[in-house]
Design goal:
This is 2-deoxy-scyllo-inosamine dehydrogenase. This protein has 344 residues and is α/β, with parallel strands linked by helices. It has twelve helices and 17 strands.
């Protein structure tokens, strides 16, 4: 086992470096994991730009992680060196009312591995053994790296209720929006429209199975969506979470419909049309992360081939080029950018 390891440090979007630190060891109940692949999330780039309300700088990224168990700590059963694992990064107390009812994704003391604690964009990391899932036989590392980003849409779609036969609009064709498209289709949505400002992203949404892809800045977006779907819009998934997208969602959704806020909003006040929400009995609900059930569904979806990995994973960079990976993640032509980690 090496004495020193590399670990990415993000001070700002223009100051992303690789530091060298002593190698960790696994404590009671922990696994020591060697990173194989780790994704750059929208939360990562928001944080690096100083825009994320819950991720202060500097931080050590890496919550979308796939790796191989290098060693087990005392008291760990069921894992052995060589096991391939996917990190489920929510770290929860297990004692609060939310945790006791199984909703540990909204634990009152929630922290997130790779967001508020050092993550997996490194050679080796430790994590509690109950915070990982096994990679199924036959699933590649690149496929496994999409489990965490897909689990968030799976959870969001579950919160929308039964989508069988429903008409759905997804606002935003970034990584999460495109994976919401896949999750909603799997859940039985009959017609799905995706919106985005960029033509290239709209074209990708169509390749991934959207029934329509509409310009997000269209003055008549509501009418275009209804015509494209051939029905009133039952559910809107807002993967942008800004004032304009919330206004669009409120206009788009039918009376008695539901808005699921998936994107991370900016800190502070966001105006909403409470008059319309009240008068039309529109339900507005937030969604945060996932639980183990969502992970299991995401793993099954990817194993089934329901997610086109080649369309979603658009670039990979070695650990030493993490700064380039962050820059690529901000480029409109990319969807999911991954960092691969080879032994130094």
């Amino acid at each position: 086992m090496p004495q020193q390891i590399r670990r990415v440090l993000v001070r700002s979007i223009d100051d992303i470096t690789v530091e060298h630190i002593p190698a960790p060891t696994a404590d009671e109940g922990e696994l020591l994991v060697r990173t194989a692949v780790v994704g750059v999330c929208g939360s990562d780039t928001h944080a690096a730009q100083g825009h994320h309300p819950f991720m202060p700088l500097p931080y050590h990224p890496g919550h979308e992680a796939v790796g191989v168990v290098a060693a087990t700590g005392p008291g760990v059963d069921g894992f052995a060196p060589g096991d391939r694992v996917i990190v489920e990064p929510n770290l929860f107390c297990g004692r609060c009312p939310q945790c006791r009812t199984g909703r540990y994704n909204i634990c009152q003391e929630l922290t997130v591995f790779g967001c508020q604690t050092p993550g997996a964009m490194t050679d080796l990391f430790t994590i509690p053994a109950d915070r990982v899932h096994r990679v199924p036989a036959g699933m590649t590392d690149l496929e496994a790296a999409l489990v965490e980003p897909l689990a968030t849409p799976v959870h969001a779609v579950a919160k929308a209720g039964d989508l069988t036969g429903r008409a759905v609009v997804v606002l935003g064709a970034g990584p999460i929006g495109l994976l919401v498209l896949a999750a909603a289709r799997h859940a039985g949505a009959a017609a799905i429209a995706v919106t985005d400002l960029l033509p290239g992203k709209r074209e990708r949404a169509l390749r991934l199975g959207a029934d329509a892809a509409l310009p997000a800045d269209a003055a008549d977006l509501t009418e275009q969506a209804r015509q494209a779907l051939g029905a009133p819009v039952d559910v809107v998934f807002d993967c942008v979470a800004r004032e304009q997208s919330m206004a669009q969602a409120t206009d788009l959704v039918t009376k008695g419909g539901r808005i699921i806020v998936v994107g991370v909003g900016a800190a502070g006040t966001t105006p909403v049309r409470l008059d319309l929400i009240q008068d039309r009995e529109i339900s507005v609900e937030g969604t945060l992360m996932y639980t183990a059930d969502d992970y299991r569904t995401a793993i099954a979806l990817i194993a089934s081939g329901a997610v086109d990995t080649d369309e979603i994973v658009t670039a990979t960079f070695p650990l030493e080029e993490a700064a380039k990976a962050f820059a690529a993640s901000l480029a409109p032509e990319h969807v999911k950018v991954l960092v691969t980690v080879e032994a130094p």
